[in-house]
Amino acid sequence: MTASPRPIFLSDLLAALPYEVPRPKEDVWVTGIASDSRKVRRGDLFVAIPGVAVDGHRFIPAAVARGAAAVVGTRPAAAFPRLGVPYVQVRDAREALAYLVAAYYGHP
Fold first, then answer.
1. CATH label of the domain that carries residue 71
2. What is the pLDDT of residues 33-61, one digit of tens each?
3. What is the signed CA dihedral for 92, 93, 99, 102, rounded to 10 degrees?
4. Would you give the end-to-end CA distance of the chain in angstroms?
């Protein structure tokens, strides 16, 4: 996904979800959203999507190394104790990705 012309706070993106999620202690600027760790750019929100053959959670360290500002996934935050960036647990990563992207682009 390409970057929006404007950065947005993680908390503003999370507010677009149709249910409450625990807010991370640190609110960070997000400058893009990616669900493919190979396409993450500095400042992106990485959404880890579990799949049938490959689980996106495996690629969280790679996404952070590429500059992800925060991570959204379905596993408990305790599974990533030394991540170094905010992690938010959601019920369904694919559904969350849809809401987050819509909010990021101003609900086109």
1. 3.40.1390.10
2. 999 999 999 999 999 999 889 999 999 99
3. -160
4. 15
